[in-house]
Amino acid sequence: MGVIIKASGVSVVSQDSSIENAVQAARNCLEKAGIDGSQVDLLINVGIYRDDNIMEPSIAALIQQRLELNPDPVKADMQARTFSFDLMNGACGFLSAVEVSRSLLQTGVYRNVLVVGGDVHPSRRAAPGFPFASVGGAVLLGSVADDAQGFGAVQAHSRTENEYFGYFGQGAMEDFGVSGRQFAPIVLQPQFALQFSQRLSESVQNFLRRESLRPDQIDVLVTSPIEAGFPAQLAANIGLPASTHVIDIHPELGDPHTAAPMVCVNELMQRGAWQPGARILFALVGSGITTTCAMYRVPT
């Protein structure tokens, strides 16, 4: 069984609400797919930085409510149900959601899986030093019988040394007092982009060897837009040929963090680069350092 992307959507309508951006991106995605919310069986939210630092209920539940995804099966169709949950793995969350979706789609109970993501400063205002762009992304996943189509296996790797590297966020609630919903102290460790590039390059090279793939077999590269030029540097590090389409959304949008892979997919579709048979390498990296890699074959 192959896991395929049926449609994608993006939203930049709200700079102060990750929930609103996720909702608008999801609506855009479902409209492109030509289905309504009643046909969504599963909703996965991969966003990390939340409106007002909300911990409970899950952000996925709030997004599901706003989208009216089978909110009350007792009053409607008892067979129409939507299960929703948050899945938090930072910038690598999208491919983690793909792997979880694969397991659930294989049961035959789920047909349409909606993955959404996006981040915002909890104060819901522009905040100096906050490294992520407030952009929402969404993709609709489904399955096909041919396991040569869609996503292959996802390879994940996390640094095992007793050290954390990348974006570092913390805060003592006693220091925040009654204003805890307004703060998200973020520390960017020195040379984190260089460390991310080196670790991701190693992970991709290991992935290609394991999958018996050559760089010239990759048509498109989708990676984390840590900074402008990061995708091109990764492409050079792993020896991709000049013919490979390397997408870099950072100059236009910045780094949408958890939404970035979905925004890239949407851009590729809009630019006509999402062609049948195209072989797309997804290579994501986030704090930890954590990496996830997967190949995607656009259905023919």
Number of E strands: 13
Share in β-strands: 15-25%
Structural domains: how many = 2
CATH class of the largest domain: Alpha Beta
Please summarize what this structure is.
The chain is α/β, with parallel strands linked by helices and 300 residues long.
Report on this model:
- This protein folds into two domains: 2-147, Thiolase/Chalcone synthase (Peroxisomal Thiolase, Chain A, domain 1); 155-297, Thiolase/Chalcone synthase (Peroxisomal Thiolase, Chain A, domain 1, 3-Layer(aba) Sandwich), CATH 3.40.47.
- 28% of the residues lie in helices and 22% in strands.
- The protein has 300 residues and is α/β, with parallel strands linked by helices.
- The chain has helices at 18-33, 59-67, 93-105, 173-176, 192-210, 230-237, 250-253, 260-271, and strands at 2-11, 42-45, 83-86, 113-117, 136-144, 150-151, 155-158, 167-169, 186-188, 220-223, 245-246, 279-286, 290-297.
- Strands 6, 7, 10, 11, 12 and 13 form a six-stranded mixed β-sheet that branches. Strands 1-5-4-2-3 form a five-stranded mixed β-sheet, sandwiched between helices.
Question: Can you lay out the helices and strands and say which pair or pack?
Answer:
Blueprint: E1 2-11, H1 18-33, E2 42-45, H2 59-67, E3 83-86, H3 93-105, E4 113-117, E5 136-144, E6 150-151, E7 155-158, E8 167-169, H4 173-176, E9 186-188, H5 192-210, E10 220-223, H6 230-237, E11 245-246, H7 250-253, H8 260-271, E12 279-286, E13 290-297
Parallel strand pairs: 2-3, 2-4, 10-11, 10-12
Antiparallel strand pairs: 1-5, 4-5, 6-13, 7-13, 8-9, 12-13
Helix pairs in contact: 1-2, 5-6
